[in-house]
Amino acid sequence: MKSIKVGIAGLGTVGSGTVNVLKRNAGEIARRVGQPIEIAHIGARRENPACDISGIRVSRDVFDVANDPDVDILVELIGGTDVARELVLTAIGNGKHIVTANKALIAEHGNEIFLAAQEHGVDVAFEAAVAGGIPILKALGEGLAANHINWVAGIINGTGNYILTEMEQGARGFEEVLAEAQALGYAEADPTFDVEGVDAAHKLTILASIAFGIPLQFSKVYMEGISRITIEDVNSAAQFGYRIKHLGIARDTGNGIELRVHPTLIPQEIMLAAVNGVMNAVMIDGDAVGPTLYYGAGAGAEPTASAVVADIIELGRELTVDHHERVPYLGFHTDQMSDEPVLTIEDVSCGYYLRLHVQDKAGVLADVTRILSDNRISIEAMVQKEVDEGLVPIVILTHRVREGDMNEALKRIAALDTVDNDIMRIRVETLDA
Ligand SMILES: NC(=O)C1=CN([C@@H]2O[C@H](COP(=O)(O)OP(=O)(O)OC[C@H]3O[C@@H](n4cnc5c(N)ncnc54)[C@H](O)[C@@H]3O)[C@@H](O)[C@H]2O)C=CC1
Ligand SMILES: N[C@@H](CC=O)C(=O)O
Ligand code: NA
């Protein structure tokens, strides 16, 4: 079977994440694209223990990848603007499509790169460049394309948000938390880009162009970072009912576009205020849709790779399939549908909240808990409430259990003479990933 051949330049945090996601999900990705995606060539100064590249051709010089006639799509993950610009222009000149996570490159040289791509009839995709794994460029450029966009406001630097959150929740100092964000692979090669707002300004530049149809104008973004924020500021803001978040804001005022990146007090009760750690969130207000909110991991190896690989898939689809089925109707190709069964509710597992009324007698609770344990149900918490009309309300939270087992247990519990048979059951989902 033919395959789409990608060349990956740069094998750091995002490069290794991209290799791992492409390899781990290769089967599903091929079903979505219609052909396998093959990593044909990697450009890296050294191997990265975070991923296995055995069997893949490796060059020390990334230009070998951009000049490899076998490569259909060049994935630029080296970062920086000088070599990256030259590399991408070289690959475009060789007729290759480009995927990049590099917001500095797009914000500062995007106008030139898009022109070159147009001349050579190739595409440039950069979903990973803004808000990491959140498909925000797709949402803004396609999903909201009917709207006049009024404003975009977001937490778009994971490192900065991680630092502010840790300072607030752990009362820890700036330098210590920054070092941790670097170790986790969130920070830019030069972390002043994160803490002084440069990275957020790169991303805002891109968002604003897609929101308002203006050229990329990085030099016009007003930029302030978080490096002067102290724990005292965080605490004082809290006393007034605010949290400090580093926001990128792009607003169409009717008289011009505001483009600004700075620490901002926002009310504690709004959703953006609850975005913590490396998570990003972007709010977009469109004239038709109203306010919308997009949330997810803004940095890190695999969240970023999620967007890089989605771009590879999109370009792969353009290379392989009939135009009318570029994105297959149901996401996967019609001849690649899975016959994995849909579970009946009895086979679904979740936690349960149970509220029952029992007689105020010795041994009743023991009967109930024994029936639960007979059915492999373990109790997470149990509370006995005030006696109500001669019966004692009991509330039980259980750990995750198969619904069929819970049904068996509830049938037996309801049959006890000492338990009212009107038992309330609500399923519990903590939704932790
Ligand atoms: N780390 C993250 O969470 C995110 C990173 N990005 C962007 O992704 C890109 C890559 O970032 P990371 O993977 O974090 O950086 P990184 O520093 O971990 O990886 C970059 C790799 O490229 C290599 N490299 C640089 N210049 C090279 C050259 N001339 N030849 C060969 N290898 C070269 C470096 O040795 C390093 O291994 C950057 O543009 C960054 O802004 C975007 C979203 C999130
Ligand atoms: N350094 C960036 C990485 C993702 O874009 C961040 O912390 O958000
Ligand atoms: Na994104």
Give a written overview of the molecule.
- Pathway: Amino-acid biosynthesis; L-threonine biosynthesis; L-threonine from L-aspartate: step 3/5; Amino-acid biosynthesis; L-methionine biosynthesis via de novo pathway; L-homoserine from L-aspartate: step 3/3.
- This is Homoserine dehydrogenase.
- Keywords: Amino-acid biosynthesis, Methionine biosynthesis, NADP, Oxidoreductase, Threonine biosynthesis.
- α1 packs across α12, α5 crosses α10 and α7 packs across α8.
- The model has no long low-confidence stretch (mean pLDDT 94).
- This protein has a 6-stranded parallel β-sheet with strand order 3-2-1-4-5-6, with helices on both faces. Strands 8-10-9-7-11-12 form a 6-stranded mixed β-sheet. Strands 13, 14, 15, 16 and 17 form a 5-stranded antiparallel β-sheet that branches.
- A hairpin with a 6-residue loop joins β14 and β15.
- Helix content is 36%, strand content 24%.
- The protein is built from 14 helices and 17 strands.
- The protein has 3 domains: 163 residues, 3-Layer(aba) Sandwich (Rossmann fold), CATH 3.40.50; 164 residues, Dihydrodipicolinate Reductase, domain 2, CATH 3.30.360; 84 residues, ACT domain (Alpha-Beta Plaits, 2-Layer Sandwich), CATH 3.30.70.260.
- The protein is of the alpha/beta class and 433 residues long.
- It starts with a strand and ends in a 5-residue tail after the last strand.
- It binds 1,4-dihydronicotinamide adenine dinucleotide, ligand LTNE7NMQ and sodium ion (NA).
